[in-house]
Amino acid sequence: MNACRYLGWGDLQKFRQTSLADNEALIYTTPTGDVPVLIRGFLNCIRSNELKAKLPAYLSENDLVGAVVAMVRNLPESLLAEFDEWLHSTQTKSTNTVVCAALSW
Known about the structure:
It contains 5 helices and 3 strands. The protein is of the alpha+beta class. α2 packs antiparallel against α4 (about 60-75). It is globular and about 40 Å long. The protein has helices at about 10-15, 35-45, 50-55, 60-75, 75-90, and strands at about 5-10, 25-30, 95-105.
């Protein structure tokens, strides 16, 4: 069963140091309160060559989409509002600030 677990948001380098199981991969995107844009960002990460190399060949993109969509749709509205506040109030955006999740299969 494929699943996607929200890990948090912040500095990408910090999340890259997170220990993951052999059947997990880190996915990330820019924080935004716009759910479709957030989903699209995670899907773009899944489509990256770096992540495709880690995923088993038997998994299709469609197998993963449902897990990502379910995870994003279950994020609290308050968290999405926090992402939007960061997006609209931060004068100098850090390109290392991301929303992270662990994709498992």
